[in-house]
Amino acid sequence: MQGILYEEPTIWLFLLVTVVMGGWAAWMTGRAVAITWRPPVQLVIYTLILGLAIRFIHFALFEATLLSPHYYIIDTIVLFAFSFAGWRYNRARQMTTQYRWLYERTGPFTWKARESA
Questions:
Q1: How far apart are CA 105 and CA 17, in angstroms?
Q2: What is the rounded CA–CA span in Å between residue 56 and residue 19?
Q3: CB burial class (10 A; 0-12, 13-18, 19+) of residue 79?
Q4: Diameter over CA atoms, the chain
């Protein structure tokens, strides 16, 4: 997998920077977009920018390639997964908390309309 998903000497650097640090930042980005009731299109824009920041961290700390489209796409796909999960989780919580007479939670990422009495 080295060379396909990550260019660092070990997978632990990829997991630390992209998954742990970037994943946390992406989750919080999704949370911020959901809490302010913004559409997911803004989440895409913010995640693309976050992908550049994560790519810079790989470059600055671990001497990875800065302008590598391949690794930027890999990092950004991982960040998209975290940011959309954070957005959906918080949106489900918002819908079921603020409109509890209309919706009920069916899972951590989903809700459904309440049945009328």
A1: 33
A2: 15
A3: buried
A4: 62
Contact predicate 77/23, CB 8 Å: no
- Kindly tell me the burial class for residue 88, based on how many C-beta atoms sit within 10 Å of its own C-beta (0-12, 13-18, 19 or more): middle
Distance CA 45, CA 28 (A): 14
Could you give the 3-state DSSP secondary structure of residue 15? Answer: helix
38-83, pLDDT tens digit by residue? 999 999 999 999 999 999 999 999 888 888 899 999 999 999 999 9
28: region left, alpha or beta (phi > 0 left; psi from -120 to 50 alpha): alpha
Three-class secondary structure of residue 104 per DSSP: strand
Task: Give the C-alpha separation, 93 to 96, whole Å.
Answer: 5
Annotate 28-93 with DSSP letters as a single string. Answer: HHHHHHHHTT--HHHHHHHHHHHHHHHHHHHHHHH---SS-HHHHHHHHHHHHHHHHHHHHHHHHH
